[in-house]
Design a protein that fits this description.
The chain is mainly α. It is built from 22 helices and 6 strands. A 3-stranded mixed β-sheet has the order 1-2-3. Strands 4-5-6 form a 3-stranded mixed β-sheet. The N and C termini lie far apart (about 80 Å).
């Protein structure tokens, strides 16, 4: 297809879940208990689209669909469900159906699905699964969540360093059933099963059959340890531009591989988690109940209430000044709000740099200096702007000077708080993305009110 023939954005096929008529047909067929119609509706869909449709069904319709055609739902569709929808689907499917699905999935996907099965049901599911599936799932679940051991795929292609291209190709053709569904490299191992090199499939197919693997292999750019955090693995994939990477155990033996499709999921998951943590909330999906949302958000709202009370106490201290100069009440929120925005900007940049491992102990001073100077420069600019505007509106040059000075002080403190608070929380072992925003807001509110009202009391009411 040429560029001119490429479909326009509005001509591309929309996802079935974005088609209200299609979803209504599925819900109607489920309500009518029409299994054959449900099969026809979902038959030609990609498993990812099937998962998307299931996620968009109301609870009763989803139960009916699973009762009628649960055994026909593709295993990959179950693996593609978000974790909350997957928990609900797995609870409704018979153990034998779930066991069959685990056997059809790659080991990494099977482990991810098994992790969402209720512990009381998991034993029954594994008892119904094939022995090799049960062993692979149990081994995967022995690793901590969000580690490479959970993420890795246990199917891989390895060859001894003395093999040549022809031998590897012939062996793969002879054992097609044992090959991973998707793989990008053949790992070259020594007699102890330590990976010493890797050959991409594209390079392998270009070489004469008698070419030795040792002549064309490259040293692996990165070896993933089973206990390594998945976010660290994702950063390595980004840094070295990897499509896959070998996973080794504590003895350095090849035990699996991680592929880029899993890393895309990790990046999306970790990025979304950090974004939500900045706001002090957790993921809210279509399956969330009101009670669950309240439990997730209320604690941080309580912390915010406590910090707001402290900021209010600062205002209370200067209540007489506000009574005597009413214009202070008009300008006070502006000073605090602008400082809060400046702090949020610095915080967002800092949390992203920490998550991407760009901000380390070696360069922390440079980051602090940059954010401090940036905040001070912006503070000076907006101090001048707001100071002149306030002096003109209220016909009071001293008031304009007070506002300008307070803005400059609050901006400077906000920039430093936006970087120093997450750094301090990280050093203390806390997640800076989760709790930083509450404390940065607390600092900017208190400093803003204290600087503005304190200066106003000292300068205007002396």
């Amino acid at each position: 297809m040429t560029m001119d023939e490429a479909p326009r954005a509005d001509e591309r096929r929309a996802a079935p879940s974005e088609n209200p008529l299609f979803i209504a047909q599925v819900i109607g067929a489920a309500g009518d208990r029409d299994g054959p119609l449900l099969r026809r509706l979902l038959a030609d869909l990609d498993p990812a689209d099937v998962a998307d449709v299931l996620e968009h069904l109301p609870g009763e319709a989803l139960r009916h669909v699973l009762q009628l055609i649960g055994a026909d739902i593709p295993a990959e569709a179950i693996a593609n469900l978000n974790w909350e929808a997957r928990e609900e689907v797995l609870a409704l499917l018979p153990a034998r159906v779930v066991a069959k699905a685990l056997g059809e999935l790659d080991t990494d996907d099977a482990a991810a699905v098994a992790a969402d099965i209720d512990e009381d049901v998991l034993d029954e599911v594994l008892a119904a699964a094939e022995p090799e599936v049960r062993l692979a799932v149990e081994e995967a679940l022995s690793f901590d969540e969000e580690t490479a051991g959970r993420l890795m795929q246990r199917e891989y292609v390895a060859a001894p360093d003395g093999a040549n291209v022809g031998q590897v190709i012939d062996r793969m053709r002879a054992d097609v059933a044992e090959l991973p569904d998707v793989f990008f490299e053949i790992y070259v191992v020594d007699p102890r099963m330590h990976p010493i090199g890797a050959v991409t499939v594209s390079k392998l197919l270009r070489m004469p059959r008698d070419t030795s693997l040792s002549e064309i292999m490259e040293t692996p750019k990165f070896l993933v340890r089973t206990e390594m955090d998945q976010e660290e693995v994702a950063l390595a994939f980004q840094k070295y531009h990897l499509a896959s990477a070998p996973v080794v155990d504590g003895d350095g033996k090849l035990t699996g591989m991680v592929t880029v499709d899993d890393i895309v999921d990790v990046i999306q998951e970790e990025g979304g988690e950090d974004l939500l943590n900045l706001a002090g909330v957790t993921d809210a999906s279509q399956m969330d109940t009101v009670a669950r949302s309240i439990r997730a958000r209320a604690p941080w709202l309580l912390v915010n209430l406590l910090t707001a009370l402290v900021a209010s106490a600062v205002i209370w201290t200067f209540q007489q000044s506000i009574v005597e100069i009413v214009s202070l009440a008009v300008l006070m929120p502006i000073v605090a709000s602008m400082g809060g925005n400046a702090g949020t900007q610095a915080l967002a940049v800092t949390v992203r740099a920490i998550a991407a491992r760009d901000l380390t102990g070696a360069n922390a001073a440079r980051y602090v200096m940059r954010e401090g100077l940036t905040a001070a420069a912006n503070g000076g600019l907006f101090a001048l702007l707001l100071g002149v505007l306030s002096a003109f509106v209220f016909q009071n040059a001293e008031l304009g000077g007070v506002v300008g000075a307070a803005v400059f002080i609050n901006f400077s403190c906000a920039g430093l708080a936006g970087i120093l608070i997450p750094l301090a929380l990280r050093r203390a072992g806390a997640d800076p993305a989760v709790s930083s925003s509450v404390f940065v807001t607390f600092v900017t509110d208190c400093i803003g009110f204290l600087a503005f009202l304190g200066l106003a009391t000292f300068v205007l009411l002396r």
